[in-house]
Every structure is written in structure tokens, then in C-alpha cells.
Amino acid sequence: MFDRILIPIDNSSESWVAAHHAIAIAQEEGARLIGLFIAEEKIISAPFLTSVDVMDPLSPSYDPMLMKQTEFLREQLRELGEKALRDLRQQATTAGVEIETYFESGVVFEIILEYAREVDLIVMGRRGVGGKWLGPLFGSTFEAVVRQAPCPVLATVSDPRPLHTMLVAYDGSDRAKDALEIGLHMALERDRRLILLTVDDGKEDRAAASFEAAAMAREQGIAAERRFVKGHVAEQILKVTAEEDVDLILLGAYGHSRFLSAILGSTVDDVIHKAPVPVMVCQRQK
């Protein structure tokens, strides 16, 4: 199911945690790892630019000192990136995982999304490459990737632990079906415990969705545990996660527009932000 796994690395502790998860999944799936370091151009040039003219040798405003400082920063980022990619290659090779690595420069989330078109899974630290989580209204590199990637994104929060119990949040939507398909695959491969949680939030009749999920699991020969509860969706997902010692949450990707999610809040936002375990936000390339 996961043949190519993308791991954007920036040498932060969060990105190394994500790398450890990516390597573990690649070992299990027999997948190839794609390591990516991106030098953010805004970090390189923003501290020095008062106008674009200062970087133009033909302009009267050209400042050679600022140009030298910019080039120095660019070289420092390249050295940092090359070292991070070397370390990642070493860790993957030691684990017996095939890996290819790339160094890029530009806008971080845009480059990640370009690479995302050619992979089956992205693994990122929950606070992301490029900054802290800022919430649905203000956005971040991490949030942009989770919202726009054409493939599942695994948001990690701590080093990998044995994966015994998984929870799929299921509401009958197409994206929830993506999450269920992945959850069934991962449960069947290693005979893991699978909880199928449907939350009745009063907006629609969710009972049919709950039975549908259980039937799909039975078709795969998996004795999943069906849970049907009432309440706030994110709160119930987090509650069951804590009560059942869940190791991984799988749920469907965003179902509303960005503007609507910013106003109403999003189950995905809430769960990713608050969950004490990794969260896989699922959408499959069609």
C-alpha cells in the first residue's frame, strides 16, 4: 500500500521523530524512503531585503555586503541540509530501508506538495517543517501540507512505539472510507486490534455508517471492535484514544472549505493538535 514514503527533514527534533516513524513503516511495508531537505528562501533573504534593488548588481541601491551575507546564509543552509540528509541515509541504510535524498530551495510547503504527487505517504512532525502549529485560520507549512496533500499524511508527536491498537474514525464519507481501507490493511498485515469509532454528533444519522464500517471489516476477515457513541466528534475520538490506549488514529481528510473550517473548527485540526499519539490524515490519490 505504501511503496514510496516522503520524509521532509529540517534537522529539528520533530522532524527526526517523524523520520524514525517513516523508517519503521518503510521496514514493515518494504517501501522506499524519499528524504527531502528544503532551504526556505525567505529565511535566506528576508532579514536583509529592504527592496529587491539591493540584490541587483545593476541597481544604484545594490549592496555587495548584503549579497555576501545572503550567500553565506545560503551556504550554511546547504551544509546543514547535506548533513541532515547524510544522517538520514545512514539511519535508513542501517535499518535495511532503501532511500533516495534530495536538496531543494524554495517555498517549503509548495515543494513538499510537488513531491507529494509521486508518493503514497508523507510523514511529518506534528509541529511541522517550517514552524509551530498556528491553527486553522493562520496556517503553517504543516497545516498547508495536511490540507492539500493528495496522499495520506502521518502527523507524529513522539518516537515510535509498538503499534498494537488502532482507531479509525468513521462517518461514512469518502475520506473516511480511505482511512478505513488503510486501517484494515495495517490491521490485517500484523493482526492488530482495530477500533471502528462512529460519533453521532446529531447532524446526520450515523448509525448506518457504523454498521457499514463493521461489515467492511468482516469482509476482510477482521474482527474489529465497533463503537457508536454520541457527542462532539473530536472529544470522543480523544476520549476513546485515552481509554483504550490507542497507538494510532486514522481519520479522513478535510471535508469543508478552508474558510468554513476556520470559522467552525475542524475535527481534523482538533485531533491533530491534541492527540497524544500519531494521527494519519487519509486521502488516497485516485
What does this protein structure show overall?
- The protein is an alpha/beta fold and 286 residues long.
- It folds into two domains: 121 residues, Rossmann fold; 118 residues, HUPs (Rossmann fold, 3-Layer(aba) Sandwich).
- The chain contains ten helices and ten strands.
- It has a ten-stranded mixed beta sheet with strand order 3-2-1-4-5-10-9-6-7-8, with helices on both faces.
- It is elongated.
Q: Indicate the overall shape.
A: elongated
CATH topology (fold) name of the largest domain: Rossmann fold
> What is the count of helical runs?
10
Q: Can you tell me the CATH superfamily of the largest domain?
A: HUPs
Overall domain count: 2
CATH architecture label name of the largest domain: 3-Layer(aba) Sandwich
Fraction of residues in helix = 40-55%
Q: Strand count, sense and closure of the main sheet?
A: 10 strands, mixed
What portion of the residues fall into strands of 2 or more residues?
Answer: 15-25%
Structural class comes to alpha/beta
> What is the CATH first-level class name of the largest domain?
Alpha Beta
How far the N terminus sits from the C terminus, by CA atoms, comes to: 13 Å
Mean pLDDT: 84
Q: Order of strands across the widest beta sheet?
A: 3-2-1-4-5-10-9-6-7-8
DSSP, total strands: 10
